[in-house]
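B., you asked whether I could sanity-check this one before it goes into the benchmark set. Here's the sequence:
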Amino acid sequence: MARVDVIMPQMGESIAEGTISKWLKQAGDAVKRDEAILEISTDKVDAEIPAPASGVLSEIKVAEGKTVAVQTVIAVIETEAVAGAAAGPAPQPAARAAEAPRSAPPPTKPAAAVPAALPPPPPPPPPAASVPAAAPAARRADGGGVETAEDRLRRRSTPLVRKIAAEHNVDIGRIPGSGIAGRVTKQDILSFIESGAATPPPSAPAAGAGAAGGAAAGGAVIHPSVEAWPGDRVEPMSRIRKLTADHMIMSRRVSAHVTSYYEVDFSRIARIRQAKKREYEERGAKLTFMAFVTKVIADNLRRHPILNASVSGDTVIYRKPVNIGIAVALDWGLIVPVIRNADELSLAGIARQMADLAERARTKKLQPDEVQKGTFSITNPGVFGSYIGAPIINQPQVAILGVGVIEKRSKVITLDDGQDVIAIRTLGMLSMSYDHRVVDGADADRFMSDVKRDLETFPEGAA
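And here's what the prediction gave me:
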């Protein structure tokens, strides 16, 4: 009988920890190699983690809802395949601490050894108690070179925390961390900002724009407590819901939101779609209105680079790649997988990628890099029947497009002889929220006018 450690994987280069969302298997259950045994959440993505070997899940070391550093042993599988034991990360301190029960047959020994496997995380907090000592380490980690998982742990923050710190001009080294190894958690930095300790000197907001000052002064992302009434059902927010809530509030504070609305006649695209639908299905792609919209948006972002940009301080970064994020509504929240280099893809290529990413988002098979580095986002509330909406910008992007319901409605059209008639057309509303700090109304409306024109005159040969 051999033991194989299940470790918290590093789901991306910048990710240093993960949260156990749900155990799909319980202690004592038989598992097969590559069978999903648990779900984890990170700052970037939710994912199912497969078993590294076949056997019996003999021990669960980390309970649901707990957040641990990458490479932490979270469970143990007992297997007859001795070779499978090599899959366990031998160099890790936690794995070495677990070697004692392997050689101790009495059942009481492993139980006594469990605490011995846990001490590795607690020792780091004493240095973290000395906040000034942590600041130089953060500066060294930022100074260059390849950043390792250990470096990130010493820096005591996740990418999301560092992003919030940068937006509020907060030195993470000033904040006592309550996370593993003294790391600064999202709750720590939000509490720090809420306390007013991060508020700049009085002269700073007066000299700066109102948006930046308001973001720092009104940084109350911590939601007020509300009394539950008898008969109410109270549930904690899921990790993805917490991240979405904080990200949306932050976006409203950071960007000066303005929204433009355009009605588009999709009648031509409806005819093309009907004629090509079966052909696309035979090629393994589903031809949707969203595929046409994404294709036209991608083509126009190259011609209107200000909509494919990000704001960094008082500079504008014009992104070279056109990476379009497509919002996918899941039963447990919202996720935005990204189609990379969408402007280089054909309509069929976009349709295939949209179907693939959406399916893997629903089955929790996405990789972290597939939800990162988007340059523009599209959300489709129309699939639920919504006429139109004003979406919130997905930071650090400067614009997001909302697609309303596309349906047959009456419209006044002018015939070739100049006569006006009422006709039944396939119409839909598009809305685009944009960051008025860098995108002027004229820029946004020129972009939307081109998108409307290209959708209404989409060439059949391009499909």
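One thing to flag: The two ends are 58 Å apart (CA to CA). Otherwise nothing jumped out at me.
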